Amino acid sequence: MIKISNVSKSYVKNKKSIDSLDLEVKNGEIFGFLGPNGAGKTTTIRMITGILNPDEGDILIDGNSIKTNPIEAKKAIGFVPDSPDMFLRLKGIEYLNFMADVYDVPVETRKQKIEELTKKFEIYDDLNSQIQSYSHGMRQKIVICGALLSEPKNWILDEPMTGLDPKSSYDLKEMMKAHAKSGKTVFFFFFVLEVAEKICDRVGIINKGKLVFVGTLEEMKEKFKENGSLEELFLEITEE
Ligand SMILES: Nc1ncnc2c1ncn2[C@@H]1O[C@H](COP(=O)(O)OP(=O)(O)OP(=O)(O)O)[C@@H](O)[C@H]1O
Ligand SMILES: [Mg+2]
Questions:
Q1: Whose CA is nearest to atom 7 of ligand 1?
Q2: CA 71/CA 68 separation, integer angstroms
Q3: Whose CA is nearest to atom 17 of ligand 1?
Q4: Could you report the per-residue pLDDT of 76-99, keeping only the tens digit for each?
Q5: Going by C-beta distance under 8 Å and a sequence separation of 6 or more, which residues neighbour residue 77?
Q6: Each residue of 150-172: b (16+ CB within 10 Å) or e?
Q7: Which of 64, 120, 181, 185 has the most C-beta neighbours closer than 10 Å?
Q8: 3-state class percentages of the chain: helix first, strand second, coil last, to nearest 5
Q9: Alpha-carbon distance 236 to 240, whole Å?
């Protein structure tokens, strides 16, 4: 469970990039967070994952504050950032072992987990190559595998489908559904509205640092009484 309470953040004086954000992502839920460029998505992710400190408010991960109990809070998070271009000189297997070390995954479990995940994403045979030789999609996949190794309760994914081929994208969506079904949390950030329609239990829309809507897609259609496509609806909600 992720609970964001009254969180604000400014990078420069008198301009709040996030303004009094209140949001709860429950156990057993896939929650999609949408917003136009510059709306505050990355800033929100950086605060949830403890990379940035909020100026005001607090964020609880399974009841642990990211401010006052950061290690416990972070242990419960699996994070897939939007850019998978990191640790390029490591071999795939070295990266996964590094992630397993960071998250204290026991040696026996990790072997089995690495095999299971990388076979699912069809990168098992590439684990002995350096990540810099991987394609964008393969880099995305290895980062996803690294984030899921410790079986974290809360998945935070920033545009995870970007760069994935249809099969891997399908597999990841199925994994997200299974994760939520087992009572855990999936919080993901994205642009592709059709994905939202297919897998999200609820969505939140952020615009200029403020949450402008939270609810199911049905509620969104109902509230804005728009007969057009989801895309038109989104544009209307986030318009000036
Ligand atoms: N390091 C920074 N210094 C100053 N302003 C920043 C910084 N990072 C972000 N901002 C500002 O904060 C606001 C929110 O930015 P953020 O990166 O969170 O948006 P986003 O929703 O992730 O956008 P995108 O879809 O383009 O990734 C923007 O107005 C941006 O200019
Ligand atoms: Mg961003």
A1: 11
A2: 9
A3: 42
A4: 999 998 888 889 999 999 999 999
A5: 48, 49, 61, 152, 154, 156
A6: bebbbbbbbbbbbbbeeebbebb
A7: 185
A8: 40, 25, 35
A9: 9
* 156 pLDDT higher than 80: yes
- The DSSP bridge partners found for residue 64 are 61
Centre of ligand 1 from the C-alpha of residue 40, in Å: 6
Give the tokens for residue 21.
């954000």
| Rg, Å, the chain Cα set | 18
Residue whose CA lies nearest to ligand 1 atom number 9: 43
Residue 70 is encoded by which pair of tokens?
A: 């950061």
- Using the predicted structure, report yes or no on whether residue 164 has a pLDDT greater than 90: no
Q: Where are the domains of the chain?
A: 1-16+27-76+154-162+179-240, 83-152
Q: Please report the DSSP string for 107-146 in residue order.
A: HHHHHHHHHHHHHHTT-GGGTTSBGGGS-HHHHHHHHHHH
CB-CB contact of 40 with 209 (8 Å): yes
Q: Which CATH code is given to the segment(s) 1-16+27-76+154-162+179-240?
A: 3.40.50.300
Q: Please state, in angstroms and rounded to a whole number, the distance separating the CA atoms of residues 125 and 83.
A: 23
Closest by alpha carbon to 80, among 19, 162, 198? 162
